[in-house]
Amino acid sequence: MIKRNPTREVRVGSVTLGAGHDIAVQSMCATRTRDIDATVEQAEAIREAGGTLVRVAVDSARDVEALVEVRRQSRANLVVDLQESYRLAEKVAPYVDKVRYNPGHLWHHEKDRPVRDKVAFLVDVARTHDLAIRIGVNCGSVDPEVKARHPEDDVQAMVESALEHCRLMDDLGFDRYVVSLKDSHPRQVIEANHRFAAVRPEVPLHLGVTEAGMPPEGIIKTRVAFEQLLSRGIGDTIRVSLTLPNPRKHEEVTVGRQILDDIAAGRFRSVPVFDDDTLNIISCPSCSRVENERFVELAQQVKEMTAYAESHALTIAVMGCRVNGPGETDDADLGLWCGPTHVNLKKGTQTLGAYGYDEILPRLKEELDALIAARSAKA
């Protein structure tokens, strides 16, 4: 058994999170939601692999229409990911069991409307339709006002954002919510969840290393974070976020369950701290927001092409969509975020241009070589 913090219960469809219930393992469909047959097939594959929650993204009215049929055909507990339009919550609510929103994205949408009013809208929808809510805070998309208060502490910015939204929920008398605090570095994930749990130990936590990347490195990063948190009682549901082709998406659940089994049996592998002195490639998990499935292949090609730079302490981010790509590449030395036909290349926050999928690797290598040369000249 894994010891657990005494968090409160939060019911999501047929599963209950927190309060000593089994740690739930979940994943997210990588298919386009409007592709009903593929989405149902993948949702069922995740469920059959042991995934107790299955997340899908809804970005348009067509996605909502498709979700109605996905709900009819799938037995999974469905979670909808609200990214750029929180108002879609009202339309998808009859067909899902939980909604997830990102406080940073919520801040950016309808900026003239107070955040409290937007949260109140989501709470009203959840109450009306018997839904749970996840407050999903990501390192690369904390709202600018909170981030400005902690310019030297990204972890505290994440924690404060989560605490602020918890207070909004509490003020509205709604307690059927869970929180996630995610980063692409396991140490940041560990620290953020430790800090949050120290202040709000009763709130169930969803754990994950976002954009962990490709196996095996992505599995190692995730294992490091989970072992350090779950062994201390922190965590009620988990997601392993791996860059995988669509037919292998259910492997996230298999990996998650293996990590849980190992922790329960006392088989720990993560004593070392993740190395900051080598090349770090982060890539987001393939999901339904990916606009070109070549993203997964590109991430693998970037890994192979950059092997010669392994000894250099640089970060390269490969993101699969316009939602997370622009913001979550800002902290990387070099960033790629993929559109339908072109890949956007960035150097920190600076955009260098958009290139075809067949053109981007040589261009990325030019910038990588220039960074290495510049650092060597300073050494």
CATH topology of the largest domain: TIM Barrel
What's the CATH C level of the largest domain?
A: Alpha Beta
CATH architecture of the largest domain: Alpha-Beta Barrel
Strand-pairing-aware structural class: alpha/beta
The overall pLDDT average reads 91
Total domain count: 2
Low-confidence stretches: none
How much β-strand is present in the residues?
15-25%
Arrangement of strands in the largest sheet: 3-4-5-6-7-8-9-10
* Strand and helix order: EEEHEHEHEHHEHHEHEHEHEHEHEEEH
So what's the overall shape?
globular
Span of the ends, CA to CA: 50 Å
* Structure annotation, total helices: 13
CATH superfamily of the largest domain: Dihydropteroate synthase-like
Largest sheet: 8 strands, parallel, barrel
Q: What's the helical proportion of residues?
A: 40-55%
SSE diagram, text form:
Blueprint: E1 10-12, E2 15-17, E3 24-28, H1 36-48, E4 53-57, H2 61-73, E5 78-82, H3 89-92, E6 98-101, H4 103-108, H5 115-129, E7 132-138, H6 144-149, H7 154-171, E8 177-182, H8 186-199, E9 205-207, H9 217-230, E10 237-239, H10 251-264, E11 280-283, H11 294-305, E12 315-319, H12 325-328, E13 334-338, E14 342-347, E15 350-356, H13 360-378
Parallel strand pairs: 3-4, 3-10, 4-5, 5-6, 6-7, 7-8, 8-9, 9-10, 11-12, 12-13
Antiparallel strand pairs: 1-2, 13-14, 14-15
